[in-house]
Amino acid sequence: PIKSSAASDVYKRQQINGQKYIYVRIACPVEVSVKYNGETLNSSDNELNTRTSFGTLTFEETNSSVSTSEYDSQNELSDEKSDKVKILRLKEGDDYDVKIEGTGRGRMDYSIGFMDENGEYTDFRKFKNIRITGSTEIDTVANVSDHTVLNVDEDGDGKYDVVYRAAANSNGEIVDLSLIHISEPTRLRCIS
């Protein structure tokens, strides 16, 4: 499923000593943090941390002169690092809380990939063209499961406005929240 040979080489090296990794790609304009067992991966300049015992965070340059929509052309990014693609590689086997925070106006693509028994990334779930503002907050869990869910708080008021869900090898779709009954105030963590 990987197109470029350089990227393919990177992915093939990810299964080391039988350890499988979850691959997460988050494209602009956001900062990301992953917390697990007292450690944090973080892309923001003031808390930058790219290596932990559970995984790594790397950055990939983007061609910011190419705009995929009129909304993207109005980017108001807070810094250059926010415009870089964030790549997470997380050891498979645990649940990782991923927090994504908007840094300006634009669109975000989020992809998560899972390895098969041969160490190849064969299950990709993609969430495309999610509108981002400086107030947007997104919560998700990176883990091996039947579905991946992105909980989106569009205006930073602490309530999820949109929930996206994707199954194996599919694109994320909006979940109809009117079908969910919650008996007491709570934030949604996972919809199975």
Summed up:
With 192 residues, the chain is mainly beta. It contains 1 helix and 12 strands; from the N terminus they run αββββββββββββ.
* Secondary structural class: mainly beta
The side-by-side strand order for the widest beta sheet comes to 3-2-6-9-10-11-12
How much helicity do the residues have?
Answer: under 10%
The number of E-state strands comes to: 12
Notable characteristics:
seven-stranded antiparallel beta sheet, globular, mainly beta, disordered N terminus, 192 residues
Describe the structure.
Helix content is 4%, strand content 42%. The protein has 1 helix and 12 strands. The protein has one helix at residues 5-12, and strands at 21-27, 30-36, 39-42, 55-60, 85-91, 96-102, 106-115, 121-132, 137-142, 147-153, 162-167, 173-174. It has a 7-stranded antiparallel β-sheet with strand order 3-2-6-9-10-11-12, with no helix packed on it. Strands 4-5-1-7-8 form a 5-stranded antiparallel β-sheet, with no helix packed on it. The chain is globular. The two termini are 26 Å apart.
